[in-house]
């Protein structure tokens, strides 16, 4: 090489002013054989990098002749040929390895070694680069490591214990166990969050339900269970049965001409949450509420009384919109979602005896299938009433949320959260045990993949164990409230593991539209435990998205989506038509869960695999697996429902066109982002992060910015609660079509304006830069 340089120097006046340095530099993607050409002209004056001083002193005088020129040309050609062959052979070898990896015919370790020449001309071997795990191998690794034996051991931690009530000894003991497990998995960090909350407990004496006839009181039931956040006191009223307590059920009672003012309303469980049933009853003027469990194939279930809560919201109802940390002091305030009337649950047997006393002539045939027959109340001449006494008391308790984190190697400040409720009023095998067992198993397996199998997630994974979930996702909501200014910008998915197994024949799914595509892809790759020759997606037999059910208030994923604007997924196995009757009762034991559920532990393993694949895919890929185009479909579907009311709105001098324009803006913004992604350099971390951030904000931008999170915490226009939602706007338009004088025009105008500008704002945020926004509106 020195001879060649000398020859070139001789050719051009004796002094080499520049030369091309060849090196085989290891690239960050694992390719160790890239040929790099650097022009080293005048980098420094003298010294090691620039022109060596001794070289000038030893240079022979320039000689220009044909022999030297021929030698130089041959040397240059030889060098170019060598460089080309090295580059070609290394490229060919690398592509063969990649092809073998992609088609599954070879291993994907991608840990080649390469040789290079040092400055003194000796050949040295480069140290192998880190192993690169591709998605198919990563998916198989997760599946192979999940263990039914570990899941069973985790679930058996709850055996022989009667209660895990939030803030009490067994809940704290379980919290300590989860903390110790996270620590033993050698996670990057493990910590606790303390919250001081107001909960409601049973009083010193049991609540009671009486039947009063001819001035005589007969105790109907004195259950051990209670309803948290019920108003304490005694009320008396005539009984009225209102099926599931939905708005349409109350409308049918009104159509019968039955007054519900001052009555005690009776419901059966199901369809909507107890808190929603109570809120509907209170609007009708009811003074009290009773609820019993629906039918079950297990006759023993007729004597069970479920625990529940009646807060129409989530979190501590005495610090609405604010976190319950020990250093915060707020003036006395109560959530507007508290029921303000006594509420109690009763057994199905007690409800049957009560219905036997009801002699009214008002009848609804469509409700006859239930135990009450078709009569809905007592006759006009009957003196029978129901007396309800509730003795609940308020208590202050400290609760603990336990966290463990596996930090990402590229973007540790972006994370997916997997969470499970830990507390339960009874043994809680299905309510809290299954989710906690899956959480611990996923923490163990993914930690092992990182520590022992060279898996390096790009983004972080947080494992969360919540307390006070029975009271309405109190632990999860307080955490969200405590970090509300940052979580929406950092947490891009929440995976809820609660009640993941309540049966074996069917699957129920609730999710943000952003995660539909990922869910579909996942279910096509996870084997069905009921039939190992098929995948989970075969259970749906078609378009599974049409079977996605809305999140309810009792789901811990609800506040993540509706309050914080974080995409969520919640799923589980169940038996349609044969609900798990023990849920929320003192009979929710491991023995009953195993008796009710075929292949309990294989089902838990499958649920863990689904959740694990979602978490790993979201932290493995360069691009976040968030399908923002789905919201274009959701908005188009909403627009199609609005078309029916164009004429009614025009009669008021208004127009729906602005809503349509905003929907079009969002569609164009989504198309623009998709083009930006397709045309971008996905290997550029800065560009990739900026594009991912735009996708992450989609869910958050559907939170109405025109409302206070304190007064209207669930601000999501698709999944929230309140007059700002698209559902509420649609209901008002339906009412307008039915009776034009029944709608407040100003309220309708405001609803339309807020919906329009929220959608328009989401479109602008999706575009990214304000100079690219469409300002037609």
From TrEMBL:
<keyword id="KW-0675">Receptor</keyword>
<protein>
    <recommendedName>
        <fullName>Transferrin receptor protein 1</fullName>
    </recommendedName>
</protein>
<dbReference type="GO" id="GO:0031334">
    <property type="term" value="P:positive regulation of protein-containing complex assembly"/>
</dbReference>
<dbReference type="Pfam" id="PF04253">
    <property type="entry name" value="TFR_dimer"/>
</dbReference>
<dbReference type="GO" id="GO:0071466">
    <property type="term" value="P:cellular response to xenobiotic stimulus"/>
</dbReference>
<comment type="subunit">
    <text>Homodimer; disulfide-linked.</text>
</comment>
<dbReference type="GO" id="GO:0042470">
    <property type="term" value="C:melanosome"/>
</dbReference>
<feature type="domain" description="Transferrin receptor-like dimerisation">
    <location>
        <begin position="655"/>
        <end position="766"/>
    </location>
</feature>
<feature type="domain" description="Peptidase M28">
    <location>
        <begin position="401"/>
        <end position="598"/>
    </location>
</feature>
<dbReference type="GO" id="GO:0048471">
    <property type="term" value="C:perinuclear region of cytoplasm"/>
</dbReference>
<dbReference type="GO" id="GO:0004998">
    <property type="term" value="F:transferrin receptor activity"/>
</dbReference>
<keyword id="KW-0597">Phosphoprotein</keyword>
<feature type="region of interest" description="Disordered">
    <location>
        <begin position="158"/>
        <end position="177"/>
    </location>
</feature>
<keyword id="KW-1015">Disulfide bond</keyword>
<keyword id="KW-0735">Signal-anchor</keyword>
<dbReference type="GO" id="GO:0043066">
    <property type="term" value="P:negative regulation of apoptotic process"/>
</dbReference>
<dbReference type="GO" id="GO:0060586">
    <property type="term" value="P:multicellular organismal-level iron ion homeostasis"/>
</dbReference>
<dbReference type="Pfam" id="PF02225">
    <property type="entry name" value="PA"/>
</dbReference>
<keyword id="KW-1003">Cell membrane</keyword>
<dbReference type="GO" id="GO:0030890">
    <property type="term" value="P:positive regulation of B cell proliferation"/>
</dbReference>
<dbReference type="InterPro" id="IPR007365">
    <property type="entry name" value="TFR-like_dimer_dom"/>
</dbReference>
<dbReference type="GO" id="GO:0005905">
    <property type="term" value="C:clathrin-coated pit"/>
</dbReference>
<dbReference type="GO" id="GO:0006879">
    <property type="term" value="P:intracellular iron ion homeostasis"/>
</dbReference>
<dbReference type="InterPro" id="IPR039373">
    <property type="entry name" value="Peptidase_M28B"/>
</dbReference>
<keyword id="KW-0472">Membrane</keyword>
<dbReference type="InterPro" id="IPR007484">
    <property type="entry name" value="Peptidase_M28"/>
</dbReference>
<dbReference type="GO" id="GO:0035556">
    <property type="term" value="P:intracellular signal transduction"/>
</dbReference>
<dbReference type="GO" id="GO:1990830">
    <property type="term" value="P:cellular response to leukemia inhibitory factor"/>
</dbReference>
<feature type="compositionally biased region" description="Basic and acidic residues">
    <location>
        <begin position="158"/>
        <end position="171"/>
    </location>
</feature>
<dbReference type="InterPro" id="IPR046450">
    <property type="entry name" value="PA_dom_sf"/>
</dbReference>
<keyword id="KW-1133">Transmembrane helix</keyword>
<dbReference type="GO" id="GO:0010637">
    <property type="term" value="P:negative regulation of mitochondrial fusion"/>
</dbReference>
<dbReference type="GO" id="GO:0099072">
    <property type="term" value="P:regulation of postsynaptic membrane neurotransmitter receptor levels"/>
</dbReference>
<dbReference type="GO" id="GO:1900182">
    <property type="term" value="P:positive regulation of protein localization to nucleus"/>
</dbReference>
<keyword id="KW-0254">Endocytosis</keyword>
<dbReference type="GO" id="GO:0031623">
    <property type="term" value="P:receptor internalization"/>
</dbReference>
<feature type="domain" description="PA">
    <location>
        <begin position="237"/>
        <end position="315"/>
    </location>
</feature>
<dbReference type="GO" id="GO:0042803">
    <property type="term" value="F:protein homodimerization activity"/>
</dbReference>
<dbReference type="GO" id="GO:0043123">
    <property type="term" value="P:positive regulation of canonical NF-kappaB signal transduction"/>
</dbReference>
<dbReference type="GO" id="GO:0016323">
    <property type="term" value="C:basolateral plasma membrane"/>
</dbReference>
<dbReference type="InterPro" id="IPR003137">
    <property type="entry name" value="PA_domain"/>
</dbReference>
<keyword id="KW-0325">Glycoprotein</keyword>
């Amino acid at each position: 090489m020195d001879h060649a340089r000398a020859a070139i120097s001789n050719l051009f006046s004796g002094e080499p002013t520049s030369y091309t340095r060849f090196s085989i530099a290891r690239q960050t993607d694992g390719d160790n054989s890239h040929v790099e050409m650097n022009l080293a002209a005048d980098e420094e004056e003298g010294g090691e990098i620039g022109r060596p001083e001794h070289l000038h002193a030893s240079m022979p005088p320039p000689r220009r002749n044909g022999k030297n020129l021929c030698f130089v040309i041959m040397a240059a050609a030889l060098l170019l040929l060598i460089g080309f062959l090295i580059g070609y052979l290394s490229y060919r070898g690398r592509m063969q390895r990649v092809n073998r990896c992609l088609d599954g015919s070879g291993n994907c370790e991608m840990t080649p070694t390469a040789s290079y020449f040092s400055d003194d001309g000796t050949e040295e071997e480069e140290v192998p680069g880190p192993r690169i795990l591709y998605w198919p191998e990563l998916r198989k690794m997760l599946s192979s490591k999940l263990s039914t034996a570990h899941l069973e051991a985790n679930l058996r931690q709850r055996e022989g214990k009667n209660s895990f009530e939030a803030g009490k000894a067994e809940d704290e003991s379980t919290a300590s166990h989860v903390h110790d497990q996270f620590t033993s998995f050698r996670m990057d960090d493990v910590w606790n969050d303390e919250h001081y909350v107001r909960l409601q407990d049973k009083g010193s004496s049991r609540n009671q339900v009486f039947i009063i006839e001819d001035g005589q009181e007969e105790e109907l039931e004195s259950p051990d269970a209670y309803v948290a956040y019920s108003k304490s006191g005694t009320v008396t009223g005539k009984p009225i049965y209102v099926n599931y307590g939905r708005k349409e059920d109350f409308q049918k009672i009104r159509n019968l001409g039955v007054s519900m003012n001052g009555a005690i309303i009776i419901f059966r469980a199901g369809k909507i949450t107890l808190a929603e049933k109570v809120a509907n009853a209170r609007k009708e003027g009811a003074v009290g509420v009773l609820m019993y469990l629906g039918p079950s194939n297990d006759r023993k279930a007729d004597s069970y009384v479920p625990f529940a809560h009646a807060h129409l919201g989530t979190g501590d109802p005495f610090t609405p919109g604010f976190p319950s940390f020990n250093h915060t002091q707020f003036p006395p305030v109560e959530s507007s979602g508290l029921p303000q009337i006594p509420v109690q649950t009763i057994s199905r047997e007690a409800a049957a005896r009560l219905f036997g006393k009801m002699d009214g002539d008002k009848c609804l045939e469509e409700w006859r299938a239930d135990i009450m027959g078709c009569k809905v109340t007592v006759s006009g001449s009957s003196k029978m009433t129901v007396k309800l006494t509730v003795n609940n008391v308020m208590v202050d308790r400290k609760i603990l949320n336990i966290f463990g984190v596996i930090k990402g190697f590229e973007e540790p400040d972006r994370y997916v959260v997997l969470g499970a409720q830990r507390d339960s009023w009874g043994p809680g095998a299905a309510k809290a045990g299954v989710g906690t067992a899956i959480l611990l198993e996923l923490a163990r397996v993914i930690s092992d993949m990182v520590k022992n199998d060279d898996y390096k997630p790009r983004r972080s994974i947080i494992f969360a164990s919540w307390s006070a979930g029975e009271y309405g996702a109190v632990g999860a909501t307080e955490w969200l409230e405590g970090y509300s200014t940052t979580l929406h910008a950092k947490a891009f998915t929440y995976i809820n593991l609660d009640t993941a197994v309540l049966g074996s024949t069917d699957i129920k799914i609730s999710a943000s539209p952003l995660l539909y595509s990922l869910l579909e892809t996942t279910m096509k790759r996870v084997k069905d435990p009921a039939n190992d020759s098929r995948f989970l997606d075969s259970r749906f037999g078609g378009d599974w998205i049409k079977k996605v059910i809305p999140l309810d208030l009792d789901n811990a994923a609800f506040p993540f989506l509706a309050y914080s604007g974080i995409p969520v997924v919640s799923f589980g196995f169940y038996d349609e038509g044969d609900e798990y009757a023990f849920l929320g009762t003192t009979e929710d034991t491991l023995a009953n869960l195993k008796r009710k559920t075929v292949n309990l532990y294989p089902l838990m393993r499958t649920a863990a695999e689904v959740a694990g694949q979602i978490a790993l895919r979201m932290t493995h890929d360069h691009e976040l697996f968030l399908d923002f185009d789905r919201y274009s479909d959701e908005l188009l579907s909403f627009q199609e429902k609005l078309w029916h009311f164009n004429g009614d709105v025009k009669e008021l001098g208004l127009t729906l066109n602005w809503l349509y324009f905003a929907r079009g803006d969002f569609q164009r913004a989504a198309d623009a982002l998709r083009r930006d992604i397709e045309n971008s350099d996905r290997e550029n971390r800065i560009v990739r992060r900026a594009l991912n951030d735009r996708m992450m904000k989609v869910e958050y931008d559907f939170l109405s910015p025109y409302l206070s999170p304190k007064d209207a915490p669930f601000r999501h226009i698709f999944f929230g609660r309140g007059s700002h939602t698209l559902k509420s706007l649609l209901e008002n338009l339906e009412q307008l079509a039915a009776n034009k004088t029944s709608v407040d025009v100003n309220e309708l105008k405001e609803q339309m304006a807020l919906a329009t500008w929220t959608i328009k704002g989401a479109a602008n945020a999706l575009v990214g830069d304000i100079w690219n926004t469409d300002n037609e509106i």
